[in-house]
Amino acid sequence: MWVRALWEARTPALLRRRLLPASGCRPPAAASCSASAEGSRVRALVYGHHGHPAKVVELKNLELAAVGGSDVHVKMLAAPINPSDINMIQGNYGLLPQLPAVGGNEGVGQVVAVGSNVTGVKPGDWVIPATAGLGTWRTEAVFSEEALIGVPSDIPLQSAATLGVNPCTAYRMLKDFEQLQPGDSVIQNASNSGVGQAVIQIAAALGLRTINVVRDRPDLQKLTDRLKNLGAEHVITEEELRTHEMKNVFKDMPQPRLALNCVGGKSSTELLRHLAPGGTMVTYGGMAKQPVIASVSQLIFKDLKLRGFWLSQWKKDHSPDQFKELILTLCDLIHRGQLAAPACSEVPLQDYQCALETSMQPFLSTKQILTM
Asked: pTM of whole model > 0.90?
């Protein structure tokens, strides 16, 4: 009951109505994709209970709601599968929609039609979700205007589809916790993740130097080359992070005052060990499913700070205009060639089971993007 109460408390009533699948879902074979007429049906990936994503998610037909005065009819173009999407379906995320629900929290769509009161977007515009929980893994939908943000249609499709979560998280963590100046350094783990790749690029655009920790793997050199092409200065393994040779890294660069942790466990403890006195470690994920452990001496004698970051909370604490400003800042970096999408594999919506399974594999090098 607390999960439903939390969701209802954080989700506007109008948006909750848009999130819920229509009753009477039919098998995919009966699909009708005449999308503009009231009562037409669209395909969507729906889960009715929590569990293994490839087992509980089904491709179904949903009713397309009528377009009201403040509504926007959107044809979805592409939507990624993010770790938070997987966690939501499994039922272990901080924000869970009422079931049954359509999967997907991120993506890009094109406006088909707008209601009479809509002023911010027009047919043909590209839009992305302004908030989590819209359910982007579907061919079409009707959303309230307040649930969408317009983005330039001249940026790459993959960049638009992956814009609203990982790059936003990366930018805010780089900006909000330490007052870093050009030449300062940042250390992070899970550096090949979507956030990690965005951190490397945004940091480079800001004149910051990055130390990027990854797990050892058979194609380590290939990954290292790719991250360095994005702007990474150092790419090291978790094992190398624990060696005395790490001191050589800091011969020609300052100790980092900011560490970004998406792993937890021993990896996060090692990040703390290399932070400069007074520095901050920001945790935004827990891939190892192990707690963050900081020694007493680090907290007392180095005055290190431990913080957490969740983009959904940041949005709650800031106005829609501030989030839109963040999106446009990132779009400007894309236009300048300073921010590219993570390595992606586009997968047709009907092949969703393969995409879900692949997205949960270890050492994943590419993000799965569902195309409609």
From this structure: no
